[in-house]
Design a protein that fits this description.
- The chain has 14 helices and no strands.
- The chain has 289 residues and is mainly α.
- The chain folds into two domains: 157 residues, Orthogonal Bundle (Tetracycline Repressor, domain 2), CATH 1.10.357.140; 123 residues, Four Helix Bundle (Hemerythrin (Met), subunit A) (Up-down Bundle).
- α2 crosses α9 and α10 packs antiparallel against α12.
- The longest helix is centred in the first third of the chain and has 25 residues.
- It is an enzyme of class 2 (transferase).
- Converts heme B (protoheme IX) to heme O by substitution of the vinyl group on carbon 2 of heme B porphyrin ring with a hydroxyethyl farnesyl side group.
- Pathway: Porphyrin-containing compound metabolism; heme O biosynthesis; heme O from protoheme: step 1/1.
Length: 289
């Protein structure tokens, strides 16, 4: 195995893109906690390193275990056939061992921050590994809702190393992430509908079709509309920009009810959702500089 292949396999094993997308809200939560408590980065730089590295390892561990458990699905789906669990570059025993060790090391690091941050991390890990991967993913169309919890706790983790996350800002960020993940995942499920069907995964488009999925996406996108107003303490500029993004997404969603090319529309929604999330969390930090 070449070094290039090894790096590619590791990135596939930890779902590198998904992992990075989950680390950003941790950092945003930490940054905003500093802002609202009047603390400085130097007061908590050690905690920042611990929560960033620790949460990354815990999330990577969960993603690795997901790869280990989903070997039968990944063998069928085109987009996952290159994963090292499928190609045989890594044995399943090795993958499971790496996943468990990575998780344990991550939790040990988090325990050096605060118990609250560790608890949020455990909730995310447990929900993703057991409630989503091993229980709901293969049984219910609501698997998307269950899985959304795991990604939504990330800003709470970052905030909680500085102060208690029982605050309107991290709670609202949790709600944004929880709701955002549904239309984002539904867009992906529409794009890969036939692959999910072949693998026997009851994603909403597979079970109820594209029309139902598109209507539900519009409902969830609309639910994002009031949330920036709960973050008015970040300023009018922040609320205005996010509200514009929400309205634009609702328009795109409604357009999907009339557009015939469902797969192209799903792809547009996927791209919009990814950029929306990046802008949202980057903006939360930019407006506080």
């Amino acid at each position: 195995m070449t070094l290039k292949t090894l790096i590619r396999d590791i990135k596939s094993l930890i779902k590198f893109g998904v992992l990075i997308a989950n680390v950003l809200p941790v950092i945003a939560g930490f940054w905003l906690a500093l802002y609202f408590t009047g603390s400085t980065f130097m007061d908590y730089w050690q905690a920042f390193l611990l929560v960033t590295i620790g949460s990354t390892l815990v999330m990577a561990g969960a993603l690795i275990i997901n790869n280990w458990f989903d070997i039968d699905i990944d063998t069928v789906m085109e987009r996952t056939k290159s994963r090292p669990t499928v190609t045989g570059h890594f044995s399943l025993t090795t993958v499971l061992t790496i996943g468990i060790i990575t998780t344990i090391v991550g939790f040990i690091l988090l325990l050096f921050t605060t118990l609250e941050a560790t608890i949020y991390s455990f909730i995310g890990w447990f929900t993703y590994v057991f409630l989503y991967t091993m229980w709901s993913k293969r049984r219910y169309t609501l698997n998307t809702i269950v899985g959304s919890v795991s990604g939504a706790v990330t800003p709470l983790m970052g905030w909680a190393v500085v102060d208690s996350a029982f605050h309107i800002i991290p709670i609202t960020m949790f709600m944004v992430l929880f709701i955002w993940q549904v239309p984002h995942t539904f867009a992906t499920a529409m794009k890969k509908c036939e692959e999910y069907r072949a693998a026997g995964i009851p994603m909403l488009p597979v079970v109820y079709g594209f029309d139902v999925t598109k209507r539900q996406m519009v409902i969830y996108i609309a639910c994002l509309l009031p949330l920036p107003f709960l973050m008015i303490s970040l300023g009018t500029l922040f609320v205005t920009i996010i509200t514009i993004l929400n309205i634009a997404w609702i328009i795109l969603g409604i357009a999907g009810l009339y557009i015939k090319d469902d797969l192209k529309w799903a792809h547009w929604n996927f791209l919009y959702s990814v950029n929306y999330l990046a802008i949202f969390f980057l903006l939360t930090m930019i407006v506080t500089i």
